[in-house]
Structure formats: structure tokens, C-alpha cells
Amino acid sequence: MSGKRIPDHLQIWVDARKRFHLSHAQIQMARGLGLNPKKFGKLANENQESWKVPFPQFIERLYRKRFKRDRPTEVMSIEEKVEMDRRKTLSKRAKKATEHEHNSGEPTSLNRKEKE
């Protein structure tokens, strides 16, 4: 993904992954749980509050409790997700362009009304 920009709403997750030393799977679990990456600082302060579980294990425990499995079925990094979404968008645009080229010779319903 050289030179491709990650959208801001996903860049927050990349930053959180680096800052809190989380794996791609743990980030995907946190996203699936609906956690807010801006609030990770409160949850990940097990050094100050020794009764708290370390943050990566906390995410895994919550995920296991809600989804009844240890990991997501398919682990995908944020960067991979951005690239997949970009490819999907490009393929939709190409498909739409080819459909438009095929239909450009035929009158649309709007054009038929104008001719009447």
C-alpha cells in the first residue's frame, strides 16, 4: 500500500495498535466489540491500577464472552481492509462505467418522457 492514505476513522485504530502494542487480531476484536480507541488510555492503565487485567487480555476476554470464540474467523489488518475496500470501490466504478457505456445508446425512461 505504498503511498495510499488510510482514512482518519481507521488511522485512529492504526495509532492505537502501535501505542498499546496490540496485534491485528486484538484490534479487530476491539472494533467488533465497538470499543472506542480514544478511550483505550483509561482501560490500559494496569500499571497504575494493579487490579486491572492487561489490556490485550481484557479485549480477548470480552471478545470470548460476547462471541463465544477466541479469535475472529478471518484476521485482517487495517491496511489490508483499506486496500480491499479500495479495490472493491474501483471494481464497482468500472462495472458502473461499462454498464453506462452499454446503456448510453438506449433511451432511458426520462428520455422517453421528454420525446412524447
Q: What is the chains' assembly state?
A: single chain
Anisotropy-based shape = elongated
Q: Note poorly predicted spans.
A: none
* Beta-strand percent range: under 5%
Word description of this protein:
- By secondary structure, the chain is mainly alpha-helical.
- It has two domains: 70 residues, no CATH class; 39 residues.
- It is 62% helix and 0% strand.
- The protein is built from six helices and no strands.
- α1 crosses α2 and α2 crosses α4.
Question: What does this entry show, briefly?
Answer:
By secondary structure, the chain is an all-alpha fold.
Task: Give me the secondary-structure topology.
Elements (H helix, E strand, L loop, with lengths): L7 H12 L4 H10 L6 H4 L11 H13 L10 H26 L5 H7 L1
Keyword list:
single chain; 116 residues; mainly alpha; 2 domains; elongated
